[in-house]
Design a protein that fits this description.
The protein is an alpha+beta fold. The chain is built from nine helices and ten strands. It has two domains: 145 residues, Sandwich (Jelly Rolls), CATH 2.60.120; 77 residues, Arc Repressor Mutant, subunit A, CATH 1.10.10.
Length: 242
C-alpha cells in the first residue's frame, strides 16, 4: 500500500487503527469512530481546513490516512513558514468540538486521503458514551505536548541541532517510530528551523554525506534517525553548525 493518497476506506481504517492516537484507544471507540467516518481525498496544494472556521465549515475532526499535510500558523505574519508536517495516523480539527474556531490552516503537501467525522456525528457518539470524551481530552493533551516539544527544539541555539530536530518532527519520528519521507524543498525545511537557504542547504548536504538522509527533488528521506536524535539530544557539534 502506498503512503500517498488516495487509498480505499478499508486501507484507511487499517492505517488509523495501527498509527497514532486512535491506535492507543479502546477497540469499541476505534470501531465506532471509524464507522462514522467519510473518506475524502485532496490533491497536492489543496486546502483541507482553514483557521477561523467553526463547526459548520470543513471536514469535522479528521485523521490523515495517506499522504502528508502541513500545519500552517494562523497567528502572526502571513508569510510565516510551515509549522510542522502531519503524517498518516495524525488527527486534528477538534477545536470546534469545544465551541472554538480552528486555530491552524491545514494544506495537502502531497496527494492526501483523510477520514473525516462530522461534528454532529462526533457529538452524537460522545454524548451517547460520555466516558469517550476522555479520548478526545487525551488527543488534545498529546497534541499540546508535541507542540511544546517543537517549540522547545526551536529554542536550541545551534542551527544543526534545530534543523535535525525539525527533520525528525516533520518525519514523525522525533523520539521513535517510522521516518516518513519529507515532501518539502530544502528552502522550506530550512525555514521551519529558522535557517536561510544557504546554511540549510549546507547542513542538509553534510547530513547526507554522513549517510543520515538522502535527498531528491522536494523529498528528504531520513535514513539514520538515531544519529539525528543523538545530535539534537546530546549537543555534540560534529563540526556542522553554521
Amino acid at each position: 500500500m502506498s503512503d500517498l493518497g488516495p487509498i480505499s476506506m478499508a486501507d484507511a481504517c487499517k492505517v488509523l487503527e495501527r498509527e497514532g492516537w486512535l491506535a492507543t484507544r479502546s477497540a469499541d471507540f476505534r470501531e465506532a469512530l471509524l464507522a462514522a467516518g467519510r473518506l475524502r481525498t485532496f490533491a497536492a496544494g489543496d486546502q483541507i481546513s482553514t483557521a477561523g472556521d467553526g463547526a459548520d465549515v470543513g471536514p469535522g475532526i479528521y485523521g490523515v490516512a495517506a499522504g502528508q499535510v502541513a500545519a500552517l500558523p494562523a497567528f502572526g505574519a502571513p508569510d510565516a513558514p510551515t509549522a510542522v508536517l502531519y503524517n498518516p495516523g495524525h488527527w486534528t480539527g477538534y477545536a470546534p468540538l469545544f465551541g472554538g474556531p480552528r486555530v491552524i490552516h491545514v494544506r495537502a503537501i502531497t496527494a492526501a486521503t483523510i477520514l473525516s467525522i462530522s461534528f454532529s456525528e462526533a457529538r452524537r457518539l460522545l454524548n451517547a458514551r460520555p466516558e469517550w470524551w476522555q479520548n478526545i481530552a487525551l488527543l488534545v493533551f498529546e497534541t499540546s505536548v508535541t507542540n511544546g516539544i517543537v517549540l522547545t527544539d526551536l529554542l536550541l541555539s545551534r542551527s544543526d541541532r534545530r534543523l535535525a530536530a525539525m527533520l525528525l518532527h516533520h518525519a514523525g519520528c522525533r523520539h521513535a517510530g517510522q521516518a516518513h519521507k519529507i515532501h518539502l524543498s530544502q528552502e522550506d525545511v530550512g525555514a521551519t528551523a529558522r535557517l536561510s537557504r544557504h546554511p540549510a542547504r549546507q547542513l542538509l548536504q553534510a547530513f547526507e554525506a554522513r549517510g543520515w538522509l538522502s535527498q531528491s527533488y522536494r523529498c528528504i528521506h531520513i535514513l539514520a534517525p538515531d544519529q539525528l536524535r543523538a545530535l539534537v539530544d546530546s549537543g555534540e557539534a560534529h563540526g556542522l553548525s553554521f
